[in-house]
Give the backbone structure.
Amino acid sequence: MPPTELTATSRVTVFPLEALTVAYTTQSTDQRDLGDIGLVTVVDEHSDGDELWRLARELGGRTADQDRARWILTQASRARMINAYANLPDATWKAYVRRRFELDALFANHDVLVTGRIALLAP
């Protein structure tokens, strides 16, 4: 199955996670702009985003998909919250989503986590 492509301009937080460079942004399912979809992607043209799920298992000790999804979102929201990494307020990007995962309950203000890779087109 080919990845789903998303293109947008939004706030993107870029941060290191082990050997990866990760980008975090949000999408909304309606006009309220609540950011209910967390988009956590790897900045690498050869990535498919599964590296994030492996890190959640290896570093986070998580084996259940719900727990691994929450670990990934925790890393992303932590990076944004501490504001020590690159925050790009109006970045244009194209993401190649490989996995869409619905959480069983709201977590870090997200109902859904999507992972894959991203290309930052313009700051």
Notes: The CA atoms of residues 11 and 89 lie 4 Å apart. The helical segments are 50-58, 65-82.
